[in-house]
Automatic annotation (TrEMBL):
<dbReference type="InterPro" id="IPR000531">
    <property type="entry name" value="Beta-barrel_TonB"/>
</dbReference>
<keyword id="KW-0472">Membrane</keyword>
<keyword id="KW-0798">TonB box</keyword>
<keyword id="KW-0812">Transmembrane</keyword>
<dbReference type="InterPro" id="IPR036942">
    <property type="entry name" value="Beta-barrel_TonB_sf"/>
</dbReference>
<dbReference type="GO" id="GO:0038023">
    <property type="term" value="F:signaling receptor activity"/>
</dbReference>
<keyword id="KW-0813">Transport</keyword>
<feature type="domain" description="TonB-dependent receptor-like beta-barrel">
    <location>
        <begin position="243"/>
        <end position="649"/>
    </location>
</feature>
<dbReference type="Pfam" id="PF07715">
    <property type="entry name" value="Plug"/>
</dbReference>
<dbReference type="InterPro" id="IPR039426">
    <property type="entry name" value="TonB-dep_rcpt-like"/>
</dbReference>
<keyword id="KW-0406">Ion transport</keyword>
<dbReference type="Pfam" id="PF00593">
    <property type="entry name" value="TonB_dep_Rec_b-barrel"/>
</dbReference>
<keyword id="KW-0998">Cell outer membrane</keyword>
<feature type="domain" description="TonB-dependent receptor plug">
    <location>
        <begin position="39"/>
        <end position="136"/>
    </location>
</feature>
<dbReference type="InterPro" id="IPR012910">
    <property type="entry name" value="Plug_dom"/>
</dbReference>
<dbReference type="InterPro" id="IPR010917">
    <property type="entry name" value="TonB_rcpt_CS"/>
</dbReference>
<keyword id="KW-0675">Receptor</keyword>
Amino acid sequence: MPVLEITASSPAQGALQQPYAGGQVARGGSVGLLGTRNVMDTPFSTVNFTSQLIEDQQARTAADTLINDASVRLTTGSNGFDDTFQIRGFAVPAGDVGFNGMYGLVSSNRVPSQLIERIELLKGPGALANGIAPGGSIGGGINIIAKRAGEEPLTRVTTTYLSDANFGLNLDASRRFGTNKEWGVRFNGLLRGGEASIDDGDVRSGFGSLAVDYRGERVRWSLDAIRQHDSTDNFRPQISLLSTIPSIPSPPDARSNWYPGTTLVQKDTTVASNIEFDVTEALTAYAGIGYRKGTNDQVFPVSGPAANALGTFTVRNSYYDSYNETVSGTAGLRWRFETGPVRHALNVGYSGFRRDEGNAYIQSAGTVVSNIYRPSALPVITAARTDPRKSAETTLTSFAVADTLSILDERVLLTLGVRDQTVKVDSFNTTTGALTSKYKASATTPLAGFVVKPLEHVSVYANYAEGLSRGTIVGAGYANTGAVLAPYKSKQYEAGVKVDWGSITTTAAVFQLSRPNSIRNAANELAYDGEQRNRGLELSAYGEILPGLRAMASASFLRPELTKTAVAAEQGNDAAGVPDKTFSASLDWDTPWVQGLSLNGRAIHTSGSYLTNANTLRFDGWTRFDVGARYSATVAGKPVVLRANVENLFDKDYWLTTGTYVTVGAPRTVVLSATVDF
């Protein structure tokens, strides 16, 4: 039986696809169980951002890069508790970001850019490709590919300044060893501190990562060790607005903190390893396992009653400390073979995830009246601060099989797959330790994807995908805090076309994605109510328009419709907190008159969204403009790059919202850096 050669369109799992024209995105990336795929051979909408883009835009976290795609929006601001995304109109929490193909191994708050070689974005449910996301997200998947030692030795030092007075120092060093440079070591370290985007705030960060890899003739192995410690005084606040207000209050100054005196300490430790072994030229076995422990200690004010139209609210102060401990793993086989004229890429895989988590919620005895424009001091907490105790234990396991059949020299590809998934969640009383609830649910979720290339550089695709999501563990601020909602299924239908014009790729996709709708009910409980069905159109283009002129542009048009609602008047309304139009566009230009000088600019627009499912009040839309420049030169024989960026150039104040829960976007922020390679 002849084997299917490993080609550029079907590389080994660990291989990185080459950058596309302009270098800002890659030609493809990993698609979980399906392995590494060229974008033109993938029956999904995917984008793969490169480290070049991350560096040139001076991103501090993965979130700063992901907003280059119009289908992705942040619902939290910089220097806040975490980076929470919205993809195709559905929430994707920071804890659902994967790391080298496994969930739960990077910080559940944010991923620092110093760790990242690639950011892989998959739009739509990724259950078959990646297994169940621990936080229950279905709008899309985000996977971080860690940096590895390159072919050439690297010793790079970068100093940064972030307005108003935050300074940082980053060391990035790597070497390869061995006769054929088979061993690689890369270290990344970051220290920074000082006031950033909040008045009287202090953001102190310490980050270190060590990556070791081996590239043998038939074996590829890697080990990542990561330590992250963030400590923030006066972090960016979030608040609830009353659902009954007659008008939405104006967003306050983005540098203000209506909860003065808050503190947040976040610590994460991760160790993860991946291995691949080519059993034969056609059969590859792989496995990965990782461990992470994370803690969050914070002063956590809660508004109740929430803010009214004048911005007035009543606040109770609290300590809300938490921990989570995760073990995550994957294993599988990839077999490439032919049956007559049909080529097969058969994939069989297992994924497992176990997480213990706990918290301690200590409230102040009293409350104070405050205002988002004129905040009062937080009430004193007199009760003793106690250690977090176990609140939940989650186990996610799944087995999957998928086969991609191709004919006519891969001009026609059909992917069929199925994943059997099991969700098990036990909840515990954090005071007594008693088991309070438990559930175990299993489901089989199918996937079908089709790619046809009527012309050499044109791909027409379609897919049907289902996802199973673990039920939400209700957080603080609800009457049913600590409860676990039931697991649920989501369904997606999608069709699109991709055209590679040589140095520019354009894409268009239509989709329908649905899942149960979450609401805050009259009893102040988080609950399901009917269904949210998002129908949308996505357009994008990226590449190099002219030599030295790089561009990315995308648009998303969404109808987030509520169906099967318990409240008849809300049937057919838009889901709260979901914008119906978003646009992202950027240019990066190497100027012809000054060698080494490049200019860049970016515009991000988000339309308004509704405060509640009743659709009586709507937030204003907003547009943010960013500009920047960089200069590359050789000084005393050393390569030097100077960068300057201004984000939110016109200092626009605007709400970021998921409905009644809101925060403000970051103010005008100046980012300066100097990089020297020794």
